[in-house]
Amino acid sequence: MVGLSGVLGGGGLPETMAARTRWGDDEVTTTHTDDHVDLAVSSHSLLVDDPPAAVDDGDTLLWLWGEVYGHGSGRGYEPRPGGPETSAAYCAELYREHGLSFVEELNGQFALVVYDRPNRELSFVTDRLATHPIYRARLSGDEFVFASNPQWLALHDAIDVEFDRSYLHEYLALRRVFGREPPLVGVRELPP
After folding, report:
1. What is the rounded (10 degree) CA torsion for 150, 48, 22, 147?
2. Considering the chain, what percentage of its residues have pLDDT values greater than 90?
3. Which residues pair with 138 in a beta bridge?
4. What is the mean pLDDT of the chain?
5. How would you write 147-191 as a 3-class SS string?
6. How far apart are CA 155 and CA 121, in angstroms?
7. Digit-coded pLDDT (tens) for 4-14
8. Could you give the CA distance from residue 73 to residue 58 in angstroms, rounded to a whole number?
9. Residue 100's pLDDT is what?
10. Helices (H) and strands (E) in the chain, counts
11. Distance CA 71, CA 161 (A)
C-alpha cells in the first residue's frame, strides 16, 4: 500500500506505522528522520525519481506521493516535462522559482510534503480534490502524527482508538467520508 506517514514535533514514527506504507517489492520507500520530523513515503516505482527532491543546497526537502501533470492555468499552463518519475524534481524546480506559492497552480493527483529545515516548517499540500488525502491527530503540544490512511494513525501508541459512530457508518459503507471527519475521534483530514 503506497502512502505516507510521520510524526512532527520530535516523536519517533512507530515501525508499525512506517511498515503500512510498504506493501510489495515494486514500491520505493523513502524515510527521513531528524529531531523535528520522522516520516516514511512509499510510491510505485514507476512514479518515483530519487526522493526526496532537494531544493538548492538541501535546506528544503520535498516528498511526493502521486503524480503532478503540470503547472499553471489557461494559456499559461505548462505540462510537466519528462515521464511520471520526474514529478518530485519538477516540484523542486517550481519551488526554487516561485517559493511555496507554486502549489496554487499545480495540477495532478498527489500529496506533497515540503520541509523547510532551517525554519523547521513542514507544509502539506494535496491536489484540489484531495485525491491523496492526509489525516492528522494531535499528540501533545506541537507534536502530531499524520498519515495518508486514517487507520494507520490508530497504530500510534499515543492515539486512543475511539469511533464516532455516525462517521463510522458513512466510512464503512462508502470507504470515505464527505467532509474532514473520519470515523476516529480526534483525527482530521487536512483540507485540500
Report:
1. -20
2. 40
3. 144
4. 86
5. ECCHHHHCCCCCCCCCECHHHHHHHHHHCCCCCCCCCECCEEECC
6. 25
7. 999 998 778 88
8. 29
9. 94
10. 4, 11
11. 40
What values do phi and psi take at 90, rounded to 5? Answer: -60, -45
Residue where the block lists cell 489525516: 135
Mark residue 16 as left, alpha or beta (left: phi above 0; alpha: psi -120 to 50; beta: remaining): alpha
44 sits in which H/E element: strand 37-44
Distance CA 170, CA 19 (A): 27
Sequence letter at residue 42: S
Kindly state the cell numbers that stand for 63: 516528498
The pLDDT assigned to 19 comes to: 75
Each residue's pLDDT tens digit, 42-86: 776 665 555 677 787 789 999 888 889 999 999 999 999 987 678
CA 35 to chain centre: 19
Question: What's the order of all strands across the beta sheet hosting 27-33?
Answer: 27-33, 37-44, 3-8, 143-147, 135-140, 187-189
Beta-sheet pairing, 27-33 with 37-44: antiparallel
Separation CA 136–CA 64 (nearest Å)? 17
Residue 184 grid cell: 476516529
3-state helix, strand, coil in the chain (%, to 5): 25, 35, 40
